[in-house]
C-alpha cells in the first residue's frame, strides 16, 4: 500500500531512543559550532571531525595549516587530494612520472 508523507498525521520516527541509551556523541549545537568555528580554535579531534563534516578544500587546508604534524594530517592530505581530483574532473592534481629507477 503506497503512502505519502502528507498523509502522516502523527509524529513519525524510525527509531525511538531507549531511556538507558548513551547520550549522542555530539550535541546539535556543538555540531553547528564546529561547522562555523575556525579549526585552529578546536582540539585536533574536533577539528578533524569538522573538516570531514565540511568536506571542502578550504576545510581540509585549514586543518593542515592548524595541525600539519598530527597523525590525522596524512588522512586529510589524502582527502584533500581526492577532493581536488574530483573538482578537476578526474585528473590527478599531480602526475607521477615513472623512470627506470621509480617515481620521482
Description of the structure:
The protein has 104 residues and is mainly alpha-helical. It is 44% helix and 4% strand. It is built from four helices and two strands. It has helices at 28-36, 44-54, 57-66, 72-87; strands at 98-99, 102-103. It has a two-stranded antiparallel ribbon with strand order 1-2. The radius of gyration is 21 Å and the shape is extended.
The best one-word shape is extended
Order of helices and strands: HHHHEE
What percent strand?
Answer: under 5%
Give the end-to-end Cα distance, rounded to a whole number of Å. 62 Å
Low-pLDDT stretches = none
Overall average pLDDT: 77
Features:
about 100 residues, mainly alpha, two-stranded antiparallel sheet, 2 strands, about 45% helix, extended
What's a concise summary of this model?
The mean pLDDT is 77. A two-stranded antiparallel ribbon has the order 1-2.
Walk me through the topology.
Elements lengths: L27 H9 L7 H11 L2 H10 L5 H16 L10 E2 L2 E2 L1
Antiparallel strand pairs: 1-2
Amino acid at each position: 500500500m503506497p503512502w505519502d508523507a502528507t498523509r502522516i498525521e502523527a509524529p513519525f520516527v524510525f527509531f525511538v531512543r531507549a531511556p538507558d541509551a548513551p547520550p549522542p556523541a555530539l550535541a546539535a549545537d556543538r555540531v553547528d559550532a564546529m561547522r562555523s568555528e575556525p579549526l585552529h580554535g578546536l582540539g585536533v579531534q574536533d577539528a578533524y571531525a569538522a573538516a570531514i563534516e565540511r568536506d571542502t578544500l578550504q576545510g581540509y587546508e585549514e586543518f593542515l595549516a592548524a595541525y600539519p604534524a598530527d597523525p590525522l594530517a596524512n588522512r586529510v592530505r589524502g582527502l584533500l587530494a581526492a577532493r581536488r581530483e574530483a573538482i578537476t574532473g578526474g585528473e590527478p592534481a599531480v602526475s607521477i612520472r615513472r623512470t627506470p629507477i621509480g617515481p620521482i
